[in-house]
Every structure is written in C-alpha cells, then in structure tokens.
Amino acid sequence: MNLAYTMAPGRGDTDLILHKLAADLGACGLRCCGTVQINSERADSGPCDMDVQVLPDGPVLRISQDLGPSARGCRLDPAALETAVGLVAASLAGGADVLIVNKFGKHEAEGRGFRGVIAEALALGIPVIVGVNGLNLAGFEEFAGGLASRLPPDCEALAAWASRAIAPAIEAA
After folding, report:
1. Quick one: angle between helices 155-172 and 13-27, nearest 10?
2. SS3 assignment, position 90
3. 34: left (phi over 0), alpha (psi -120 to 50) or beta
4. Among candidates 83, 87, 47, 88, which has minimal Cα distance to 64?
5. pLDDT tens digits, residue range 63-107?
6. Which of 9, 83, 139, 157 has its CB surrounded by the most CB atoms within 10 Å?
7. E strand map for 56-127
8. Going edge to edge, which strands form the sheet with 32-40?
9. Residues contacting 8, CB < 8 A, separation 6+
10. Phi, psi at residue 52, to the nearest 5°?
11. Per-residue pLDDT averaged across 144-151, rounded?
C-alpha cells in the first residue's frame, strides 16, 4: 500500500508544501488528483478564509464559513467539503497517477470526508499523499493501520516518494 503523510509545524505550512508538490508533479506530466488548500487572510483580521482547489485544474471551493467575530468552533463547511469529495471521486474514476489530499481532518477521522476516496485510490493502486495535523494524527494512524509512511515536510522528499511509488505502475502499463 502506497500511503504517505506529512506534517509541517507552522500554521498553513503543510498547505503550501502540498500545493507546490502538486504543481511540480503536474509539470512533470503526472496526473494529480485530489485537493490542495489555499488560505486567504481577511481584511477584518478574522480567521483566514479556507479554499480548496480540486486537482488538477478544477474549481476552487470555499470550505470555511464566516461564523462571526466571536465564534470559536469549527468553521468547516461540511457541504462544501462533500462537494469537493464528490468532484475528486469523479476525477479519480477517470484515472490518476497520485492522489493528494490537503488534510486528513476531523471528518476523515470520523469516517467521512475524503476517507472513502483515499481508500478507493489505494484499492486502485494509486499512491496517496495526505497532510495531517497533530489533532488528527491518532485518527489517521488508526485509519492507516500502521501502513503509512511519515515523510518530512519537504517538497523534494515528497516528490521522490511519489516517483518511487508511481514507477511500478508505469512499468506495468
């Protein structure tokens, strides 16, 4: 099973690394499927807006909700997330060399979100790279059953892993 994950220490750093990884792999001619997150700072100094781009060149969807300045709960818009999941699932059915998922979050840890898409890609032999944060690491490790490789938050290391994971599939074709 070709499943890898990465964790970067700074807020939004994993998003930047996976965004660059998708661009680099795409520039090499690989078919990337999945999502990368784009955070946009807000003029009102509130929490950033969170968008995901559906790879390789799909729409950008706002996955955060503006809950007001006093809100402290989760700002994820579950309907927008499920829209992204549906678009990625449809794209995956058309074939891919690698699946990149911006985050294995609370929804995935609870059995929703991109969890089924990740499992489908792995069943199809498509390598998967996932961003994980510390809050959801235990849920991801339970999902992966000890079969995931932890990689450094470095675009070159992630690209090297993806190239090694993709090579057997290309040779078999």
Report:
1. 40
2. helix
3. left
4. 47
5. 887 665 555 556 678 888 899 999 999 999 999 999 999 999 988
6. 139
7. 60-62, 98-104
8. 60-62, 49-55, 32-40, 98-104, 128-132, 3-6, 149-151
9. 14, 16, 17, 131, 153
10. -125, 140
11. 96
